[in-house]
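As described in the Methods, two query proteins were run sequentially through the folding procedure within a single session, without resetting any intermediate state between them. The first query and its resulting structure tokens are shown here.
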Amino acid sequence: MKGPDRAPSSFKLLAGTGLGNAGPGHAEAVADLVARGVPVVLATRTLAGPVLGVYGHGGGADILAAGAVAAGELTPFQARILAAAWLGKTRLIDNMAV
């Protein structure tokens, strides 16, 4: 399938702190990327624990509201591999469509 419904060609991974916080300005950048069709995954750099949308002012709540997808309890490295595999699969399916 070609055109606007075509799979994205890249993604961005944001490795936040704590529950997935990043600070002022990041939510706006995420919203801009999502509006352009670029998937954004939000992970946390902590050793254990999930991404939770708790804090505003650039925190995880704002970033998720801007359109990022929470990586759950995956580390940034695991989330990157999963997102790359998903992207590769959607591109493969996209190229197979007539």
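Immediately afterward, the second query was submitted; its sequence and tokens are:
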Amino acid sequence: MKGEKRLTLQQDEIMFFETTGRTHRIALHGRCGRMDFIGSMRKLEEALGSRFLRVHRAYLVNTEQILELDLKHREIRMQNGETCFFSRNAKGELLNRV
């Protein structure tokens, strides 16, 4: 396809995935920045395995890259300094994994 690019990353380079405001658009937040692509969070979740946890409807997080949790504000700080949120429903599983 015209304009199609393929990029290979190691899982430890990925901080988290985030849905964007556009349909089927996902933002990959990595060590070296952000990249948007077309995809499905559900398919990513299935393909990436247990290292990644769906912590919110909008976020799929690499649990090995979590630096700290702010339980009061339900916020995750990643190794690269970026933050994302987690839902109340994900709190228990997140605490078990970190």
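The first strand starts at residue 14 and ends at 19. We note this only descriptively and draw no conclusion about the first query from it.
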